[in-house]
Design goal:
single chain; about 300 residues; alpha/beta; Arc Repressor Mutant, subunit A; D-Maltodextrin-Binding Protein, domain 2; 3 domains; six-stranded mixed β-sheet; three-stranded antiparallel β-sheet; 10 helices; globular; LysR_subst-bd; plasmid; DNA binding
């Protein structure tokens, strides 16, 4: 006789996702309107169902074990699919307009699946998208010109999964890296050639400051206002650039410390929401981005 399958509890999976995205069990309890001990009991129940320890102590909070990290990826997908299914069944009549901004890095390769899930659930909602740089997108959200925006925070800023408050949530912490074409080899006798986005650009400034701090000579060989132009220049061998692995073309490679370049740290990817954005369509797209995008970004970090 076949064993009866174990069904993971959706409420427990949702609590796990919220806890790890917002900084621990106490934060999850606040958001869910429960006590911290109730959340802890839910997580113990989940460990019993899985048959593996999922959490470990990390100072005053908890971190994931390898098994916990694996389950979290599935939990995000299960919760997102559950919400999409309910929205499709209940809310197909939802209409209106959502104005949303994205960084260039996400617009082409990472967002179609997420936006597709939203469109399938709410085909009558009109999405107005704007692609831009982080500072511009954050300002437009603050002014109410955008309802939502995904934007990079400050390099070295909030840890992954932390709640930043004021309508801002950190979805992931992405490495900042040196990028070059596959055959690039630094010449120790010559300044490092740099291909960069034109100013103002946080990645440009950070890379130059790190080179100056390490006493590495450099020269700018190419600038562009667009990320696609920048990738083309790096692919042509015009120089090395500074970016995250998001949207990295397959023909380019990430340079390691063996190339003699300084480490660059990491940058948070944040989801911003305008204080005045209270429409149901905005609520749904915000939830889909918050629940689905971390799993998509994890695929980037693992690749």
């Amino acid at each position: 006789m076949a064993m009866r399958p174990t069904n993971l509890d959706m409420d427990v999976l949702r609590a796990m996702v919220i806890a790890m995205e917002h900084g621990g069990f106490a934060r999850a309890a606040e958001r869910l309107g429960r006590t911290q001990s109730a959340i802890s009991l839910q997580m113990k129940k989940l460990e019993e169902q899985v048959g593996q320890p999922l959490f470990r102590k990390a100072g005053r909070t908890v971190a994931l074990t390898d098994a916990g990290d694996l389950l979290l990826g599935y939990a995000r997908r299960i919760v997102a699919l559950n919400d999409e299914a309910l929205s499709a069944a209940r809310g197909r009549a939802m209409d209106g307009t959502v104005r949303v901004g994205f960084p260039q890095d996400l617009a082409e390769r990472r967002l179609p699946a997420v936006l597709g899930a939203f469109h399938r659930a709410h085909p009558r909602v009109h999405v107005e998208a704007q692609v831009g740089r982080g500072r511009e997108l954050r300002e437009r959200v603050a002014q109410g010109a955008l309802d939502l925006a995904l934007a990079f925070g400050e390099i070295g800023g909030n840890p992954a999964g932390a709640a930043s408050g004021n309508g801002v949530a950190t979805l992931a912490h992405l490495p900042v890296v040196w990028v070059a074409h596959g055959g690039f080899r630094p010449d120790p006798e010559s300044p490092l050639p740099l291909a960069l986005l034109d100013a103002p650009c946080m990645f440009r400034q950070h890379g130059i400051e790190r080179l100056d701090g390490d006493g590495c000579p450099w020269r700018i060989t190419f600038t562009s206002p667009s990320l696609s132009g920048l990738w083309a220049a790096v692919e042509a061998g015009l120089g090395v650039t500074v970016r995250t692995p998001l949207g990295l073309p397959d023909t380019l490679t990430i340079l390691g410390q063996r190339h003699g370049l300084p480490a660059l740290g990491s940058v948070p990817l944040e989801l911003h929401r305008a204080p005045s954005a209270a429409a149901p369509a905005v609520d749904r797209l915000h939830a889909i981005l918050a629940n689905s995008l971390p799993a998509v970004l994890n695929q980037t970090e693992a690749s």
